[in-house]
Amino acid sequence: MKYPRPQYGDPNVPTLTHTALFGMGTRTLPVLEKPISIRENFRRAWMRQDPVWVPNSMTDTYGSILPMLNGMPEADFGSKERQDWTDWFGVEWTYVPEAGGSMAKVGSHLLEDVLDWEKVVKFPRLSDYDFAGEGGKFMKGWDGEQIIQCDIGLGCTERLVSLFGGYSEAMVNMAMEPEATRDLLEAFADWEITVVDELLKTVPLDLITYHDDWGTERDTFFGESMMESMVFEPTRRLFDHLHAKDIVIQHHCCGHIERFLPYQIRAGADFLQIQARANDIAAYKEKWGDRIGFEVPLETAARDREGVLQAVRALVDTYGTGGGLFSGVALADPALAWDAAMELFYYSREKYEKEKAARSAV
Q1: pLDDT tens-digit profile of 284-325?
Q2: I want to staple 300 with a disulfide (CB 3.0 to 4.6 A). Which of 1, 45, 159, 311 is the partner?
Q3: Which residue from 158, 206, 166, 203 is spatially nearest to 184, judged by alpha carbons?
Q4: What would the pLDDT profile of 38-47 be if each residue is shown by its tens digit?
Q5: Nearest CA-CA partner of 187 in 150, 230, 220, 228
Q6: Residues 6+ apart with CB under 8 A from 19
Q7: Of 320, 312, 263, 313, nearest to 294 (Cα)?
Q8: Which residue intervals of 142-230 are DSSP H helices?
Q9: How far apart are CA 328 and CA 331, in angstroms?
């Protein structure tokens, strides 16, 4: 059926204000009546089993980067000023607002030779950090229904790169000393597992975003042999642990990483958050969409209502077939953000009802 969309500014429509991540402000959106719970619908989208709508990260998830996970408790992701900070491994960073993220401080490195990692790398003692306090503050904002999401910071190869202060140094050490590199990544995976377990004492996580970039926009940083001999097993072991805790895994992975999708599937990633400009996500959906999902945010140059609505429909039609999609529509204009969120919810409902009817008719 065709659903009417609540109109922006209608005083009869109940609303709720949602906070976007990374200093992107707030959005006021309608409180919608849903035929099933947010949690059940997310499960269906993840499992590709008859979701009712495409989950919207703005409304359907409750997430954060907890301060102790990135080492910059005083940093403001919405800041217009550069900020220097040191993470909990002792790596020095500069937050660069123009880039929307942090870069390793020029000249900063803790490790020169991976053979020395056991003497040089100091894994943080989790007892030094207030997991219970920060987790408790985080949980006060949960509405009891949203999917609880957390970004756990740098993944295996990103941590390796940070210790060396850059990709070139890290890749050279991977090539020259694969066994020592593998040992370091395995130790990091062990430690990351303890981080997750500590978080779970206070925060009942549903979804973890695992950050591990594997390439530039042209190609991957390393090839399949290095993936198989060093990176894959620690990653798979961490993902196995998350699944054993009933946690859904979203792998954020920058770069043109097509060659590594089979490894991400084998490792157990449930969703991929990858660059649309560097990857043909539509082709990946066609080839691998029965085994892995995609988080695809709305990216559009449109600044008019009809253009935004068309972009939302195209997103749902391209990536949403059969489920396996969740999205985000955090547009800056409040009226367009409203319209985009409504179209994502109602248009995807209409699409999934048609899909279900077509299957029933066979």
Answers
A1: 999 999 999 999 999 999 999 999 999 999 999 999 999 999
A2: 311
A3: 158
A4: 999 999 999 9
A5: 230
A6: 25, 26
A7: 320
A8: 156-164, 167-176, 178-200, 224-226
A9: 9
β-bridge partners, 154: 211
Residue 24 has pLDDT above 80, yes or no: no
- Is residue 19 very low, low, confident or very high in pLDDT (cuts 50, 70, 90)? confident
Tokens describing residue 121:
């790398």
Set out the domains of the chain in order of their start, with CATH numbers: 15-361 (3.20.20.210)
Lowest-pLDDT choice from 63-72, 111-120, 132-141, 160-169: 63-72
Largest pairwise CA distance in the chain: 66
- Report the pLDDT averaged over residues 242-261: 98
- Strand order through the sheet with 101-104: 83-86, 92-96, 101-104
pLDDT in tens, 83-125: 888 888 999 988 888 877 788 888 888 999 999 999 999 999 9
What is the model's pTM? 0.94
Nearest to 75 by CA among 128, 23, 143: 23
141 burial via Cβ count (<10 Å: 0-12, 13-18, 19+): exposed
> At 58, which amino acid appears?
M
CA pair distance 188, 267, nearest whole angstrom: 16
User: Could you give the CA distance from residue 67 to residue 241 in angstroms, rounded to a whole number?
Assistant: 23
Q: How far is CA 207 from CA 138, 145, 182, 250, in A?
A: 15, 13, 27, 7
The sign of the CA dihedral 209, 210, 211, 214 is: negative
The answer for residues whose C-beta is within 8 angstroms of residue 1's C-beta and 6 or more apart is 350, 353
Supply φ then ψ for residue 212, to 5 degrees.
-150, 100
